[in-house]
Amino acid sequence: MMIENTIENSATTIQFYAGLKTIGGTIFEIKYKNERFIADFGMVFQNKEGVQVRPQTIISDLQTIGVIPMISGVLKTDVVDKNATIAISHLHLDHMGLLQYVHPDVPIIMSEESKTLYEHLHTIEEEPNVNVGQQVKGVPFHQPFKVSEHIKVEFFPVNHDVLGATAIKITTPDATIVYTGDIRLHETDVDTANLPNIAGSPDLLIIETTNVQEEFLDSNPVIQSEADQLMPALLEIESPIIFNIYHRNVKRLETLIEAARQKEKLIVFEPETAYLVQAFNLEAPHVRYLIDEQDASKNVVQIQRIQPITLDEVRDNFSSVWLQSSYHHIRTLLELPVKGATYVHSNGVPLGSFDPMYAELLEWIEKLGMKIVVLGVSGHAAAAQIKWMADAMQAKVTIPLHGFTPELLTGPYQTFLPEINKIYPISSLLKG
């Protein structure tokens, strides 16, 4: 259908800044008169290693090359718009990686669980430049929250591979919008499957389509949980394990710790990761953290409840150790007898072949005589599950985004594919 880019009778409009025909960087804005609600603030792509940034002009530089969209009133270089609020569906960089550039007077809301994780990520210096205590508010699930005079939101928990992921229902006087964020459905997952019952039949449904691609259309993988899929594969590995992980997936940490316990292995984390293990009460007698005896300044966090271990001790007991090795620490493996070990790539950085560092990681693994095993679970629902969700939500208009081929998804009634930076009155979408 054709939608004119004009403001009609509806006071509520929607505008997309990023997230269309891509799986990276999601930002859109709901506006009622002068009240602004911005959902997600994701990074379109990251600065490549070795490219120098210019601190005095970093925001304008990043806008010029398309990392930061041309969005007004919310960035540190802007005159702040006091009518704007930013909400974050979950703490993946493609949904919140630009928060470091937000003006300190612009309120940021996210689920309470997300805020807890966000605070810990700041402690280990993985997230910069936001005063979490003053600027960020944690919002409870299932409790309507008024962000401005006429706009209210409600957060609903959903299953994704990060703590605190939420779907968001946005209500204005003349429109109701539901944004799923990123979702997946497992057999034991009640929250996501129940979303149509508690937030369904909106005017607009904005739904992710990461796995809605031609090669996945006939696939409908249903698993009970991450642990059910990953645990058997981990327990089958007999060689010493070197692994990488993604800090924001706390459940993955829990699974690795339990698998190591069952294999009667010590599991050794880097200090930053060990801090998160302790923060979420996952420590256990067989958990250790690696200390740098030569440079104590590298131990940037305080860990009280997990025992330290030195690299020499790891070397002496290597056959009974599972060792974390993030890519930026991979040279440490030169000092260990890793030949014949298994490198378990478990959604850590570099995430995949789209990252130039991934090829370098594979070169390191080959040169060190290790074999690689990729053990991960997608954080995104299968195409058939996304289609089920879109149909079950019964929205008047379905807007698919956050995928390479969103046009492959159709809603139960009307489906609309927006364009970047156009302002759409919601009344015109509903008339279509």
UniProtKB/TrEMBL annotation:
Example GO molecular function: RNA binding
Boundaries of every Metallo-beta-lactamase domain copy: 24-234
One Pfam family named in its UniProt record: Lactamase_B_2
Record InterPro entries: Metallo-B-lactamas, RibonucZ/Hydroxyglut_hydro, RNase_J_2
Keywords from the UniProt entry: Exonuclease, Hydrolase, Nuclease, RNA-binding
Protein name, as recorded: Metallo-beta-lactamase domain-containing protein
